[in-house]
Design goal:
alpha/beta, Metallo-beta-lactamase, Chain A, eight-stranded mixed β-sheet, five-stranded mixed β-sheet
Length: 266
């Protein structure tokens, strides 16, 4: 990989919510103090190439689901000099509302998605509220329309999006959850998305309660460790610690975005 130009990688925080531990860990004690969940989209960039990972949700969805909306993910990208209207590749780790909302704000993008995710989101399990609750029907239908419009690039397992940027099917949280492996100046970094919402889900082996297959989720943690150059280069999908451990790219972006291709603090 020494001949491949490394990517810069950023996490952009766009929303947050207070949570009870029982909502974050199977077996969590509901009497413990509340914990925050942060919501991110991610950017992998080198030279003129910008790949966006997930597209977040909008203010209307935040109101419906009682989340604190901080800014549009598109505005966060703009602060990093990325115009959503010009982005050509968007990787969707899965189709839950907080990862696929705003897809309509990327009019030129190809959407990279696992075959199994769309099959799951339109299949028999969506008749069960437990599995359907994290999906938005209009967004799933919108993605089906993008399929008919030729704008979805399907993947069946591991696939290369660009040199130094690959996706890997892990399942668990949903049937078609994929994680993203990125070549950086530090080596291989892995954006875990919801394969591990919090670092503690994986580190303490305490699964997140929203799950399609717990055994796949547990196997996915091992896959994350295999894909990353070092365990510390695995980035959890919703953990507030991300904003604490990584530096902001500029002082103006403090609290908004952090650069992930940097050694984490602590």
């Amino acid at each position: 990989m020494t001949e491949t130009v490394p990517f810069e990688v950023y996490a952009i925080r766009y929303a947050t919510v207070e949570r009870r531990p029982a909502e974050n860990f199977i077996g969590g004690d509901p009497h413990e103090s509340a914990a925050r969940m942060d919501y991110f989209v991610w950017l992998a960039r080198r030279a003129s190439q910008a790949v966006v990972i997930d597209t977040g949700f909008n203010e209307a969805a935040a109101r419906r689901r009682r989340r604190q909306f901080l800014r549009s993910p598109v505005e966060g990208l703009r602060l990093l000099d990325v115009d959503a209207a010009s982005v050509q590749d968007v990787i969707l780790t899965h189709l839950h509302y907080d990862h696929v909302g705003n897809f309509d704000l990327f009019p030129r993008a190809r959407f990279h998605l696992q075959d199994r995710e769309l099959a799951y989101a339109t299949g028999r399990y969506m008749a069960t509220e437990f599995f359907a609750a994290a999906y938005e029907l209009d967004e799933v239908v919108g993605m089906v329309r993008n399929v008919y419009g030729g704008r979805v690039r399907f993947h069946d397992g591991d696939a290369q999006i660009a040199p130094g940027l690959t996706v890997h099917l892990v399942g668990g949280h949903t049937k078609g959850l994929q994680v993203v492996r990125v070549w950086t100046r530090l080596g291989w970094l892995v954006l875990a998305s919801d394969a591990s919402h919090y670092a503690a889900n994986m580190d303490a082996e305490r699964p997140f309660p929203v799950v399609a297959d717990i055994t796949q989720m547990v196997d996915g943690w091992q896959r994350l460790r295999e894909l990353a150059s070092e365990p510390r280069y695995i980035i959890p999908g919703h953990d507030p610690v991300v904003m604490q451990r990584y530096p902001a790219p500029t002082r103006a972006l403090e609290g908004i975005a952090v650069r992930l291709d940097a050694e984490p603090a602590g």
